[in-house]
Amino acid sequence: MKNRLVSRIEDRSARIGVIGLGYVGLPLLIEFSNAGFPVVGFDVDREKLIKLKAGESYIRHIPAQTIHRVFCSDRRSEVTAELAGIRECDAVLICVPTPLTRNRDPDTSYIEKTAREMGPFIRSGQLITLESTTYPGTTDEILVPILEETSDLKAGTDFFVAYSPEREDPNNKTYTTSGIPKVLGGINPDSLETARVLYDTVICRTVPVSDCRTAEATKLVENIFRSVNIALVNELKMVFTEMKIDIWEVIQAASTKPFGYMPFYPGPGLGGHCIPIDPFYLSWKAREYGIPTKFIELAGEINTSMPSYVVRRTALGLNDRGKALKGSRILLVGLAYKQNVDDVRESPTFELWKRLESHGAIVDYFDPYCPHVPKTREYPQFTGVQSREWDRIEAERYDVAIVATAHDCVDHDALIDRVDLVVDTRGVCRNAVNVVRA
Questions:
Q1: Confidence at 37, pLDDT banded by 50, 70, 90
Q2: Which CATH architecture group holds 2-213?
Q3: CA 392 to CA 194: how far, in whole Å?
Q4: Is the dihedral of CA 295, 99, 79, 185 positive or negative?
Q5: pLDDT tens across 262-286, in order?
Q6: Helix, strand or coil, per DSSP, at residue 185
Q7: Where in the chain is the domain with CATH 3.40.50.720?
Q8: Cα–Cα distance between 398 and 420 in angstroms, integer?
C-alpha cells in the first residue's frame, strides 16, 4: 500500500487535496500544481472558490496571473466546497484555523469539524497530513481518533497520518513556501516516510523528527522564541522612552555585533495568526502536567498590553498640545498586522481602534492594502468600514495620526508635515517636534 502511494507521488500522478485555501493552504496547493500534480482545493468560503475559478486572487502577494494559470488554464486543478472529492485524492493536507477562545484556551473545533466531515470519504492508501499549528498531542489525541471513528479504517495500517507545521511568511520575497525547510512527524515510520516523499517533491528540504508531538512542539518553540523576545524589546521600549532613549537607535547599534545578538523590534502589539496565539497552546497543555510557563505568560501580558501603552502615549501627546483624547480625530495608519501585506489576522490595530473609541476618540483608518475591514471574530463592529483616503489637505483634519503598520508605500513625511501629532509605533518616522514614539 505504501509502495503504491509512493510510486504515484514519484511519477506525479497522485492527486493532492488541500483543505483550507487561506494564507497557508493556497500557496501550498499552488506549489503542488507547479510541480506537476493534479490538485483539488477545498474551502467552505464560496466567495473564495468563485474568485479562484474566475482567475482572481484574494491574497495580495499572490498574483492573479498565478491563480489564472493554476485554476483556469490547468484542467487538472479544481476547487470545491464538497469534501466528497476527498475520495479521489491520494494525499489530503489540512490547513484550517486554530484560534484561541476568549479565555486563551485552544480552539480545535475547526480541526475536529474537518475530521468528522472528511472521515466518511477517506479510503485505504491515503496520506492525511495536518498543517495547522496546535499543541503537542493534537494529531494523536484528536485527529486520528475522529478519522478512525468516522471512516472505520485504522490509522497507520489502512491510511497514513503525519503532522507538518506550516512556516508561511506572507509576502516574504526571500523565503517562499518551497524555499523553507519543512518539519515532518508521522504516527508511524510508514506515515513519516510517505509524507517525506510527498513534501520532497515541492520543498527544498524536509526535516523528519521522531513523531507528531515533536513536530507540533517544534512549531510552538519557533513562535514562543519570537514572542518572548518581542516582549523583551517592548518592555525595553517603555523603559527607554522614560529615559529619553530611542529604542530603535539602540537596536540598530546593537545589531552591529556579529555574534551573540539577534535583533527584534517593538510595536503596538502582536499580530498574525501565529505569534499572538501559538505560545498559549503550550501554556494550556503544560497545565495538564502541572508545570507553570512563566516566560510564556509574562510575554503574553507584555505584548497584549502594548495597545494600552500606545493609547496612553497618544493621550499624553494630545495633553501637551492642550487637547483631550475624547473628541479628537485620529487616523490609524495601517490595518494589516505587518508591512506590505493585506493580512489583518490578530492585528493590534483593531485593539487600538477599540480602545481609542472607548475613550471618545473619532477614529478612521488608512491602509492601501486593506480597502475595507473584513469580518473578524473578535471585532465584528468594524466589519465593512472603508479605508479613508487622504492627501495633504485631508490629513490636516486629523488631530493625530498613529502609525500602526509601516507600509513602504505610505508617505510618512507628509503625515509629519500636515498632522499636529504623529504617534510612531514602528520607528519609521523621522525625528520631529510633533512625533511621539510609542
A1: very high
A2: 3-Layer(aba) Sandwich (3.40)
A3: 58
A4: positive
A5: 999 999 998 877 788 888 889 989 9
A6: strand
A7: 2-213, 226-437
A8: 8
Cβ neighbours for 19, distance < 8 A, ≥ 6 positions apart: 25, 42, 43, 83, 92, 93, 94, 95, 96, 114, 118
Q: Which positions are catalytic?
A: 274
Cα dist from 390 to 124, 393, 417, whole Å:
58, 8, 13
b/e per residue, 212-232, with b = 16+ CB within 10 A?
bbebbbbbbebbbebbbebbe
Give the integer Cα–Cα distance in Å for 273 and 345: 6
CB 330 within 8 A of CB 360: no
At 96, which helix (H) or strand (E)? Answer: none
- 275, containing H or E segment: none
Alpha-helical segments (H) within 321-426: 348-358, 392-395, 412-418
| Contact between 211 and 279 (Cβ < 8 Å) | no
d(CA 184, CA 211): 8
SS3 78: strand
d(CA 389, CA 116): 45
- The CATH topology of domain 226-437 is Rossmann fold (3.40.50)
54-106 pLDDT, tens digit each? 999 999 889 999 999 999 998 899 999 999 999 999 999 999 999 888 777 88
> Residue with C-alpha cell 463592529?
381
The structure's pTM equals 0.92
Report the chain's terminal Cα–Cα distance, integer Å: 59
Q: Classify strands 182-186 and 160-163 as parallel, antiparallel or unpaired.
A: antiparallel
